[in-house]
Amino acid sequence: MKYVIAVIQPDRVDEVLRILEEKEIHLVTVTNVLGRGRQRGIAEVYRGHKEGGRLLRKVKLEIAVNDEFVKPTVEAITEGARTGHIGDGKIFILDLEETIRIRTGETDGIAIG
Length: 113
Fold this sequence. Notes:
single chain, alpha+beta, four-stranded antiparallel beta sheet, two-stranded antiparallel ribbon, 3 helices
């Protein structure tokens, strides 16, 4: 089991979710977040002087998947989020030690679905 975390541009969320749905990956948590990467935010002029290092709006997707769904998940996120410009985002893949479905008590791969 893996826990896939992706941080992407807000305007790419619908496309990523559409492709995930096509690949039968349905269990996704989406959170609006602020952050900055290599571009260090956007410099803005405010009251006549330049201010840099602002935090940018991003969206974080969190997806728990069984091992056979890791590759399709990464492909869907990459395909849907890539514009070719700086700030397209990042994908992190972590080992998922245990999963428990609260309602039934099912564990691990069965709990993910």
